Amino acid sequence: MAEFLNERRMSLAIALALLAVPLMAEWLGNSFYTTLATRAAILALAGVGLNIALGSGGLISLGHAAFFGIGGYAVGIIASHHQAYEPLMTWPLTIAATNQMPVLWLVAILASGLAALMIGALSLRTSGVYFIMITLAFAQMIYYFAVSWPAYGGQDGLSIYVRDGFPGLNTLRPLDFFLLCYAVLMVVLALVRMISGARFGAMLEAVRQNPARVAALGLSPFRIRLVAFVLSGMVTGLAGALYADLNRFVSPSMLSWHMSGEIMVFVILGGAGRLFGPVAGACIYVLFEHVFGGVSDYWQFFLGALLLGVVLFARGGLIGLAAGRARHD
Amino acid sequence: MTFALFTEQILNGLQLGVMLFLMAAGLTLIFGVMGLINLAHGSLFMVGGFVCAAVAVWSGSFWLGLAASLVASAAAGALVEIAVIRRLYDRDHLDQVLATFALVLMFSEATRFVFGSSPLYLNPPAMLSGPVMLPGGIAYPAYRLAIIVAGLLVAGGLGLLINRTRLGVRIRAGEADREMISALGIDIRTLYTIVFALGAALAGFAGALVGAIQSVEVGMGEPVLILAFVVIVIGGIGSIRGALIASVIVGVVDTMGRFLLPDLLSGMMDAASARGTGAAIASMLIYVLMALVLIVKPRGLFPAHG
Amino acid sequence: MTEPVLSLSGVTRSFGALKVSDAVDLDLRAGEIHALIGPNGAGKSTLIKLISGEIEPDAGRIRFAGRDLQGLDQAARARLGLARTFQVSSLIPDFSVRRNVMLAVQAREGSGFGFVRQVSGDSRLGDAAMTALGRVGLQDRAQVPAAELSHGERRLLEIAMALALRPRAFLMDEPMAGLGSEGSGALIGFLDSLRGEAPILLVEHDMDAVFALADRISVLVGGRVIAHGSPDDIRADADVRAAYLGEE
Fold first, then answer.
1. Count of domains in chain A?
2. What digits encode the pLDDT tens for the residues A71-118?
3. What is the per-residue pLDDT across C170-195, written as a single tens digit (0 to 9) for each?
4. Where are the domains of chain C?
5. Cβ <8 Å between A257 and B283
6. Are strands C200-203 and C33-37 parallel, antiparallel or unpaired?
């Protein structure tokens, strides 16, 4: 139990540190670090999404960029209509575009959830290495679709000229936008924690450890995994929506397989299956990118070396190194 | 549309299929024998392309470049196997994915460091630079035809290697039962290194051949890698024959889709949107094919085991 | 006569050229223990897999609780009330003993999909689990991770999970395997009392247990039922003695 308490204390420290950096930065009048922290919070959210499938469900999805990108494009497409004063559609009914984040998020969550439902229903018919290759392939399909579909920017992507709004906040101010993203991250973490302690979480954990046993008890492992995969896609899609507004730009690169790999890296660097693992991982990633990216153009070489080192020698991720072995490893 | 154009596109599809086979054969062999999923296979393809281009430019001989690319990619494969990959055989697929993804990052950055970010260009050898006349009066680039022939020869050679040689017996034994192969007194570590280097050489060979058609650039192997995964899913994992058939199917469907769909759609909409929509749908075609295969035969068309 | 709880007719399954189940007819009636015996490789475990839905028969019908099971997957058959214990204990290793049984209770209630209410504070799940554990005598081990149980305790936990499902029939694949004589004695007593709750199809190698418990016995050799009857009939059957009991 001491280990567990230790992990909780670490989680709290990570949460506070992520909050403290932008507050300090704003106090010092340098909002660059606020933006950096916002990026970390959003990437962490993408990782939290993947962690539902990967850490809790044992589903090695190498296609989560699909959901990240779909969330981003949902925002980008609606924004492109809104800034051109065009309705989203006129038939069979007229739907006006909006620039209100709560609505945009909802659309992003639904769209990425629907994509996860379809991809999951197909790829969960298989397992193991097939599942990895198939999730990767379907994500690549959506990537190529975005590249070759000319209506929304194709290869060049879409710009969002003015960041979308949120009632009661000035999202153009970096600190406001950070706090919004941070709040979303914390709310989602609380929800994930709740779900993993509830009946569904117990079943998902059981399916990961022993699917045959769960089937013998009368519950379908396929359905449990599919629900987990959809929830996972939705959270990553929400992160994509925030990411689009952070950069005020979406492009096919959000859908590329490198993105899928990077989201997985956030989860693994921190420690798979731990609530705050992806948060720690994303913070390390952003920090690493900032520090080494400033020193060398080839910083991803060192990222690769770090990742290789973690995989070969520190399997519990960095929280694992600090807080001991995960409860289920 | 003319018959000649149609035939040309079919041949282009075949040529893409042959390329995919060279990638997929190595991947599926490595998975079948060692149980390893290797994302860095695309990097070995890239190594082949760069070495061939660089040596060809330096020496003025495409053939020297091709030979060098085979040696370099096999050596890179063996080196990576000894340094990293062999630590991964006992690990789960997640660790394999992560470690080989890390290798992709390192390979790409190292290549960018050595060769820079701008693409290299490689000319096909002089003797293959023109078109050849096929029966029916169809002119087709000799180099592309040579790729098809070379690919089919390699496929045949691989079949002979696996079915007729001592190495092949060992590889098949390794696929069937890993315990048995050690019981036979075969040095399993060496066998694994050889199989990995063989797969790497096939990938490097493909990269070198393609280098004279496309530009040679960092990341060139990754789209091919993912297409090769689609091939493996369709063909059934661990099956060389399945990989060959699925490669040709994927190559032809992809090429013909891009060629035919815009024309088919132009009956329904104006030319510009037919081009756009056709291209977008064509880019998804093989993935739809993969989805259909998954629905009907989740273990692929030619499952190797059971 | 009422319909048997479980009935197999003409159930056949081959792996390649090998017929592992050959036109098997078998039934399980309310209130009985029906033992399935036979040498290794006779196809006993295959039959359990066919009934539980892990594999599908090539031919023949399996009926349970008044329905044809064809096309139903394992989970659906379990939901109909078919509780299986595995030959090699199949547990959730990182869960405590109590959490393993809570999972079964949760499954019986048909709810894998609660998202809000926390399992740890759910006394209904916990109490039902403790009741089942109490019946097999594992209540003192409730907080221990399943991975740390002894072999015999794992067998008991399997049975507790089956009990918690409150099934219409038990399929037990060698529950006595690896238990010491004291352990199997206790388990024989317990299974004896269980038949009133739901009938048991019992695959077992321990002949003392089989002859102590079974109301009827079927003998499986080479995928075929070669003999069938009361324990006394089977003891007396010359074919069985020759083919299986190995007596000259």
1. 1
2. 999 999 999 888 888 888 877 777 888 889 999 999 999 999 999 999
3. 999 999 887 878 788 888 999 999 98
4. 1-81+167-248, 92-166
5. no
6. parallel
